[in-house]
Design a protein that fits this description.
single chain; alpha+beta; five-stranded mixed beta sheet; two-stranded antiparallel sheet; 8 helices
Length: about 180
């Protein structure tokens, strides 16, 4: 895998490992990796992964342009890996603020609990919302709720949609 602890490389792990680190163990079908680059760097990313990963879509350029995700499969293990291109300032800030932890002797950047909750709220699937609630409950004394409120409000304003605010308020109510 090509996790990096260097902020200059702008690659860090999120979701599966971050949920394990900040929350509870649960089965995940893939590993999500946020890239600190947008999809203009697709050809460079494809070159980097070409020997170790297979692309899981017939037209990666079209798929990435529609979803901001490059779905891969690690050649040796068969593990699914989704590379997620970042576009908004929140994502780039989350990369800069990621914690460095050791996993199997390697330094890995893991998204902070607050940012993981925000990512999970943005994903919005039932299992993501459950993850957000669990992370909040298990880390409630360490989490900066004002940071989450601020980021959620900014993102919602940028999106012109308050659905993420509503989801966040529901989770806070259920956890309180």
């Amino acid at each position: 895998m090509f996790y990096s602890s260097s902020p200059s490389n702008s690659i860090y792990g999120y979701c599966g490992y971050a949920v394990l680190y900040h929350g509870e163990a649960r089965f995940t079908e893939d590993i999500d990796i946020i890239l600190g680059v947008d999809n203009d760097d697709l050809s460079r990313i494809l070159n980097i992964v070409s020997g170790d990963f297979q692309v899981r879509t017939k037209n990666p350029e079209k798929f990435v342009n529609q979803t901001n995700v490059l779905p891969l499969r690690e050649t040796d293990s068969g593990i699914k890996v989704d590379l997620i291109f970042s576009f908004i300032e929140f994502e780039r800030e989350a990369i800069r603020n990621a914690e460095i932890v050791k996993i199997e002797g390697n330094e890995v950047r893991i998204v902070k609990a607050e940012d993981l909750i925000i990512y999970k709220l943005l994903a919005g699937r039932p299992k993501d919302l459950e993850d957000a609630k669990n992370v909040l409950q298990l880390n409630e004394t360490k989490i900066d709720l004002k940071k989450i409120d601020h980021s959620i409000n900014e993102i919602s304003e940028m999106m012109g949609n308050d659905s993420v605010i509503r989801k966040w308020n529901e989770i806070k109510d259920q956890s309180g």
